Amino acid sequence: MSESKQRAGSCVCGAVTFTAQSVAGKVGACHCKTCRQWGGGPFMELDCGSDVSFTGEENISVYDSSEWADRGFCGKCGSHLFYRLKETQQYMIPVGLFDEDSDLVFESQVFIDAKPHYYAFDNNTANMTGEELFAQFAPPPE
Fold first, then answer.
1. Which domains does the chain have, with CATH numbers?
2. Closest Cα partner for 11 from 104, 91, 78, 64?
3. 101: exposed, middle or buried (C-beta count within 10 Å: 0-12, 13-18, 19+)?
4. What is the DSSP string of the chain?
5. pLDDT above 80 (res 2)
6. Which of 71, 73, 74, 128 could form a Cys-Cys staple with 132, CB 3.0–4.6 A?
């Protein structure tokens, strides 16, 4: 089983590198339409929390993709660098950017109800619909 540890990686061209201080090796996938448009398929990521540092920040371009999150990419090679929640500055970083992946476990999928019919993962994962995901983060009723 994977435990939290420091993890590092970079974009394809190396103009941007990053270090995340405490990351569990639990891979998640998002099947929402925006993630699929962004990368041509599901967004496979590691939740890196908010303690992430970057070098080559002058090469990072950020797209304001929704009222709750933005997406970063390398301005030189186009690599997708992160999905970041605006309120908490929590980074979800594409799993393929990390230097080390031998201890990773595919654990969860969100927006499973938006997943197109033409692909399916065989892994046994925790699955949430978009409605279930938003309900988890909705403020409690007053």
1. 5-137 (2.170.150.70)
2. 78
3. middle
4. ----EEEEEE-SSSS-EEEEEEE--EEEEE--HHHHHHHSS-EEEEEEES-EEEE-GGGEEEE--SSSEEEEEETTT--EEEEEETTT--EEEEGGGBS--TT-EEEEEE-GGG--TT----S--EEE-HHHHHHHHSPPP-
5. no
6. 128
Please, what is the average pLDDT of the chain? 94
Max Cα separation, the chain?
A: 49
> What is the tens place of the pLDDT at every residue in 60-84?
999 999 998 999 999 999 999 999 9
